[in-house]
Amino acid sequence: MPGPFSSTGTTDVVVIGAGPNGLACAARLAQKGRRVTLLEAEPEPGGGARALPDIAPGWPSPALAHLVRHIDPRVEAAMDLSRHGLDWMAADLPTTVLSPQGHLTLRGDQAEGADAAAWAALHRRLMSFAAALEPFRQMPPPRLAASGNAWGQLARNALGLRKLGATEFREFLRLILINAHDVAQDELTDPRLRAALCFDATLGAWAGPRSPNTLILYLDRLAGQIAGGKAALGLPRDGLPGLARAMARAAQASGVTLRTNARVARIEIANDRVAGLVLTDGTAISAPLVVSAIGPKPTLLNLVGPRHLDAGMTTRLRHQKSRGGAAKLHLALSDLPDFGTDPKARLILAEDEHAVETAFNPVKYGEVPDAPVMEIVLPSAFTGGQAPAAPHVLSAIVQFAPHAPRAGEDTARAAMLAACLARLERAAPGIGKLIVKADLLMPYDIERKFGMAGGNWHHGELSVEQMLFLRPLPQLSRYATPVSGLWLTGAGTHPGGMSGAAGWNAAEAILEAGA
Amino acid sequence: MTGPRFDTAPLLETPFHPRTTAANRLQNWAGWSGYRTAGCYGDSEMEHSAIRNAATLYDITPMTKYRIAGPEAEACLNRLTLRNLAKLPVGSVQYTAWTDDAGKVMDDGTLFRIGPDRFRLCCQERHLPWLLDSAQGFDVEIADETEAVAAVALQGPTSASVLTAAGFDVSALKPFRMQDYPFRDGRLLISRTGFTGDLGYELWVAPTDAVALWDHLMAQGAPFGLVPAGTEAVMLARTEAGFLTANLDFIPAQQALREDRVRSPLELGLGWMIDWDKGHFTGRRALLAERDGQLSRWAIVGLDIPGNVSAEGSVLYYGKKREAGFITAACWSPTLKRNLAIAHVAARYAACDDLWVEIYAQRELQYHKLMLPVRKTERPFFAPDRRRATPPGRF
Fold first, then answer.
1. Minimal Cα distance from A484: which residue of B?
2. Chain A residues closer than 8 Å to B137 by CB
């Protein structure tokens, strides 16, 4: 054990992890007058939104996350992100489902084809449910076993649900825990629309569309906005690193001290209180308050350690589900590939609902699917015609990938890459010849590069049994931890995601507690 | 599958079984953690009398035993249990307890420090999953060694004399200390511990040496009145001593079905065990909140009751009317000639003023309801000086 803790620096608050939630939390606390130091292990802020090293010389890599679905309106307004450089190449991207029977493009409730009316009705209904759920994202989850519940706010939110009306409220109760596959089959006939619903319901989850409780994940996706546009899909200029840089500038403008290349080795605890922390280079920083955005598991199991926690909580944390099912594919291309559709869209490569489920089946057993489904973005398509034209890069979230492959990591990665390229070749014949360099991050690679437990980008699976007051664990759901002075935020806490809502909620909880 | 299922097969025999079955005139057996042990050899009153006036052998092999070893064994056990292991030298034994996250008692037991990094934990219930969970993050190995170690309790005023006659010099062995002796080709560990509140020892030996040890002790102990004792006699002795037993005096938290049945160490009178300054242990934050917020809901008390009818299972009333608690263990003590009880009372009745016990006394088939005033009294009820005297008295 090291000697007594003596620090080389001191601050009011240290926030660990400069992802969107860490940045939002740090900014909020700084705006309220706290001296905040934000530590980022990597050279660049942004976490899952940060710029990665180039795929090949001249071909910048997209970030791990490649589209924005939500920015918490409180964060967007209070951090004044547009003033700090946030600009949209597209603030409301259409979605095109690539299919052998012809592509189909979706814009919100507008769909093409025979099911257009059915899609519009379903979309509007789900949007109304999502709108009623959205206020729950902007507050700490309720907890009966704890004091300090915002009963007034909860009552207003519950009333908002009831105000859906008798019929719609009954539909809400029927659908809230249903699976996406059943809804797709009940409400839609067009396999491409079914594919879109099932794909989006399971994107980033360790679940197929027939897995229980997957519709709520779709509702969760709809329950947000970008610049006032509900359930919009945004592509910032310079991609997600553009958003990360704007948030970092905003945080610094609020007074946050950002330290990059500062990887935390451990959180120091004295007399059951946070005393500060020590970086891997030995630097000690003393602070009475530490907020960690890097995920509940790594924070408590690694930085704090079981000896400062109760055994039951340690066990529950170890058992918290955190299986990554999504891989990330980056291709450096010599030219723009031809998918037979306008490339200025989010492309979904899944011909029907069964393709999504079938891609999940082998992953349950630690194997690689033959035909993965994917969400493709071609950032260079949006900058074409501008000088200098960006080199062509394809960014795809590929599902599903085993987080603990039976065949071994390298074999599984090679098999997954081959399956992805074969799938892409069918959708865009000739793409293989354009590839300068291919790079695939499997869930275990994502865990190593980003510290996300199990490579799950939610820092712990977002599933109904790990949502709201169950996220990440009931005892940790209100951002406070049992260690006095240590708080959690980030995607692993309510409401999850990288909208900054979790960061803002945690900051509000800290301020309200007077911690 | 070969052989009958575990739940239909006869219970296991302990390594002492060839001798305990030969001595068991009643063939009165009781289940204990999957083993068959003697409930009574012939006459429980006489066996109890031997505990208090001579010496007895009681087969404690079924007691759950865990081997906990490794460079961080002490740190792991400090995080598991309530007491401070830094204060436990090698060769010593601690009576301790441990709780879940909510600070509710899971079990109590004795912790033996066999080496700097090697311990044995003895307890009533099985805890391997919890121990393994508690070992996460510590460089320690934990294994159940219940079957690997045979154990017998030698208890009673003449027990030291029996050991001396058997060639084991225990004159310098203090209470809660242990010592290693050569026995046949192996080793015999003798600890000055027990469950009777009297002078006594517990002997730990390889199962292969168990019968030889029994025979040797019985032969050398005959002049000192050594006889085997069964569980009935020992339970009477433990009630006289005022010791707690899991599942009789408290429900282990991990087994409780009703959420109000769990108890904290503060509520079980075990608050003295808690070392608040040793660093974190499981349940500490909950217990600190209970202590500082005075949130304890129960208190365990020793009671004196008039008359000679045991109050086992009786309900306690405040002012003869309002339910105030219940009795978990009771006996008319042949040693003390007192009617004793261990009871849980709601915290506000902890002083036991105007507290009454309702006893149903069976007299020739017919129950008579008695409402008797109780008086709070110190535990242990029976604590003779001879239990602590070193060198031990030669009776």
1. B285
2. 301, 305-307, 314
Write the ipTM. 0.94
Per domain, the residue ranges of chain A are 9-52+65-89+239-321+460-513, 118-230, 326-402+406-441
DSSP notation for B274-315: --TTS---TTHHHHHHHHHTT---EEEEEEEESSSS--TTPE
Question: In what helix (H) or strand (E) does residue A410 lie, and over which residues does it extend?
Answer: helix A409-427
> Does the structural domain A9-52+65-89+239-321+460-513 have CATH classification 3.50.50.60?
yes
Q: Given this model, what pLDDT does residue B5 score? A: 82
Residues B237 and B267 in one domain: no
Q: Do B137 and A307 touch (CB under 8 A)?
A: yes
More confident residue, A58 or A440: A440
- Which secondary structure element, helix H or strand E, spans residue A505, and what is its range? helix A501-513
* pLDDT, tens digit, 9 for 90 and up, residues A259-295: 999 999 999 999 999 999 999 999 999 999 999 999 9
- Of B186, B214, B241, the residue at which a domain comes to its end is B241
Nearest-CB residue to B75 (from A307, A311, A312):
A307
Residue B345 resides in a domain = yes
Residue B206 has pLDDT above 70, yes or no: yes
Q: Rounded to whole angstroms, how far apart are CA atoms A334 and A337?
A: 9
How many domains does chain B contain in total? 2
And the tokens for A237? Answer: 């200029």
CB contact (8 A) between residue B101 and residue A305: no
Least confident of A196-210, A375-389, B228-242, B336-350: A375-389
Which residues of chain A does B100 touch, with a Cβ-Cβ cutoff of 8 Å? 310-312
Q: Given this structure, which CATH class describes domain A326-402+406-441?
A: alpha beta
- Cβ contacts of A173 within 8 Å, gap of 6 or more: none
**Does the beta-carbon distance from B282 to A311 stay under 8 Å?**
yes
